[in-house]
Amino acid sequence: MSQKLEMHSTSKPDKCAVVTGANKGFGLEIVRRLASEGIQVVLTARNEKRGMDATTSLLASGLSNVVFHQLDVRDPASADSLANFIQSEYGRLDILVNNAGASGVVVDEEGLKALNIDPIAWVSMELLIQYSGLLKKYDRNTLKLIELMQLSGKANNIVQGVIKHTYESGEECLDTNYFGCKRVTEALMPLLKLCSSGARIINVSSLRSELKRLPNEQIRTELGDICSLTEDQLDCIIKQFLHDLKQGKLEENGWPMMLPAYSISKMTLNAYTRVLAKKYPDMYINCVHPGYVNTDINWHTGTMSIEEGAKGPVMLALLPNGGPSGCYFDQTEKAEF
Ligand SMILES: NC(=O)c1ccc[n+]([C@@H]2O[C@H](COP(=O)([O-])OP(=O)(O)OC[C@H]3O[C@@H](n4cnc5c(N)ncnc54)[C@H](OP(=O)(O)O)[C@@H]3O)[C@@H](O)[C@H]2O)c1
């Protein structure tokens, strides 16, 4: 079922890492950076050709410690096959970067291109959301923020016409970003437990994961209550979200209206990160917003390079012993959930 581009070395490597969704975007850059540190990296991708091409490009650049293995995070059999491969080749796993992600929307790309939106307007939309809490608290109605609001409001209204949230795209998004991460982590957990210095697990999240963006107070409180939160509760929240998505009741029931499925997938992913970190205190399990990076997932509206986007996840993959666990990072800085 899974064809691999095998570049065997005779001895077991000091450290072994898996990166999901690594055929492009900054996932590929994460692989390059980790391999440059001397770590044996398994580059995974759902599509064999895309994954093999990406691996070949890294090998051609002079790196020898990268291998490809197929992994569709939505397919339990492919996660099991990856686990068997790592077990037989390396005997354990030290680093897992859960990077694969889906946007949860269907986009008319030609229509979006035709709109020719200034990336500054997209960034200002992000900044506006980020600072709206501060605005309320301190009433800082500076001229700059008013300008940003005007720009962001304009961009937001314009893009609604070319971005559609369907039930199918929402379901796919949650199955990839939340359940996909959980599926792969569970399949690889027995191997991660064998890492004697405490495995590093990095869940690639988003600014959209931040709980202040969730209007529903009850669910916001539940997701923030790390003392009592459970995986079953997370499954229930997702079920409730999908039910409301199907019934067209997102706004009525206080779900986020900007990229709803994507936002919920990353909010629950962050919560899962904390639950997991509590369950495995010997590991270093964190989640990270990589920044607004120029990749396919945002139709190349991002303003940061893939090198910049890889910085946070790579920093967490290379955390020294005694580093943080159960935390959320905005790029390389620790931030509030
Ligand atoms: N770019 C940003 O500004 C930004 C901001 C915040 C968070 N993120 C997060 O960063 C991560 C990487 O995204 P990116 O920006 O690098 O976007 P990207 O270039 O679109 O990469 C997404 C990767 O995920 C893979 N993928 C999707 N579904 C998969 C599945 N079922 N199984 C395995 N792989 C799958 C894609 O594979 P295919 O090539 O086969 O589609 C691709 O390799 C995502 O989790 C995203 O949510 C990105």
Notable traits:
Rossmann fold, 337 residues, two-stranded antiparallel sheet, 8-stranded mixed β-sheet, alpha/beta, binds NADP nicotinamide-adenine-dinucleotide phosphate, 2 domains, oxidoreductase activity, NADP, 12% strand, NAD(P)-bd_dom_sf, oxidoreductase, 10 strands
Q: Superfamily at the CATH H level of the largest domain?
A: NAD(P)-binding Rossmann-like Domain
Helical/strand content category = alpha/beta
CATH topology of the largest domain: Rossmann fold
Task: Note the gap between the termini.
Answer: 39 Å
Q: If helices are DSSP runs of H or I spanning 4 or more residues, what is the number of helices?
A: 12
Total strands: 10
Q: Major sheet: order of its strands?
A: 3-2-1-4-7-8-9-10
Give unreliable regions as ranges.
Answer: 1-10, 129-143
CA-based shape: globular
Task: Give the cofactors and ligands.
Answer: NADP nicotinamide-adenine-dinucleotide phosphate
Largest sheet: 8 strands, mixed
* Average pLDDT reading: 88
β-sheet strand percentage: 5-15%
Per CATH, which architecture of the largest domain? 3-Layer(aba) Sandwich
Give Rg in angstroms.
20 Å
Measured as a percent range, the helix fraction is: 40-55%
From N to C, what is the helix and strand string?
Answer: EHEHEHEEHHHEHHEHHHEHEE
Count of the domains:
2
The top level CATH class name of the largest domain = Alpha Beta
